[in-house]
Amino acid sequence: MTLINKRIGKILASMEDKGLDALFITSPLNRRYMSGFTGSNGFIYLSHNKKLFLTDFRYIEQAAAECPGYEIINYGNEGLVEELNNAIEEDGNSIVGF
User: Fold this and answer.
1) 8: Cα within 13 Å, side-chain hemisphere
2) pTM for the full model?
3) C-beta separation of 46 from 12 below 8 A
4) In the prediction, which pLDDT does 71 show?
5) Radius of gyration for the alpha carbons in the chain, expressed in angstroms and rounded
6) C-alpha distances in Å from residue 69, one per residue of 1, 18, 81, 95
7) How far apart are CA 34 and CA 25, in angstroms?
């Protein structure tokens, strides 16, 4: 188990304790801690069912290389809010922390 996966496991357990279905990570420091991504643009949607890394077209290749285990989403086509809403709806979650 990698260090990132251990961190994610701890976060998921903490989310259960707090009654959260999912977490939306926006802070660059927290993003790097949870994914290893070193670029300047990206967001994480994390639930028990999904690990999404959302970024624009400039960072797709970098995110794919630095964020193993994450589904990489280019939010440029739909927009960040739309992609996040889609993820929440598909995941069936109602309480998302950030």
Assistant:
1) 25
2) 0.91
3) yes
4) 96
5) 13
6) 12, 24, 22, 23
7) 9
